[in-house]
Specification:
3-stranded antiparallel β-sheet, disordered N terminus, single chain, mainly beta
Length: 112
């Protein structure tokens, strides 16, 4: 079997440039490792799924980086296991969770 890819954080001093940062180093010149070590400034915000961190861009906008895959996005990542989506019932207005591939739904939030 093929070995799993090494996490991005394994290269602690590498400044990661992405489309989200216009190719510039993450967070206006700071490395991903720097931001990973300085998440305390975001302690008042909800926790993120495993391997995700917050980075403040040079324009003061917060974006999200997966330190394992290198994926970046401006939308907070969902705290759901793969395949699950959060839905709202049209009839009751209640939140439920749906897994399309399995055809399952539940009112209890699946654990990531």
């Amino acid at each position: 079997p093929a070995a799993a890819p090494a996490p991005i954080a394994a290269a602690p001093d590498a400044a990661v440039g992405t489309a989200a940062t216009g190719g510039a180093p993450a967070g206006g010149g700071m490395t991903v490792q720097h931001w990973a070590e300085n998440q305390a400034q975001f302690a008042n915000m909800p926790p993120l799924p495993e391997n995700w961190i917050r980075i403040r861009s040079s324009s003061n906008r917060i974006y999200f980086v997966n330190t394992f895959t290198g994926e970046t996005q401006f939308v907070e990542p969902p705290d759901l296991p793969p395949g699950w989506t959060k839905q709202v019932s049209k009839s009751s207005g209640k939140t439920y969770y749906f897994h399309a591939a399995r055809g399952l739904n539940t009112f209890e939030k699946p654990r990531a």
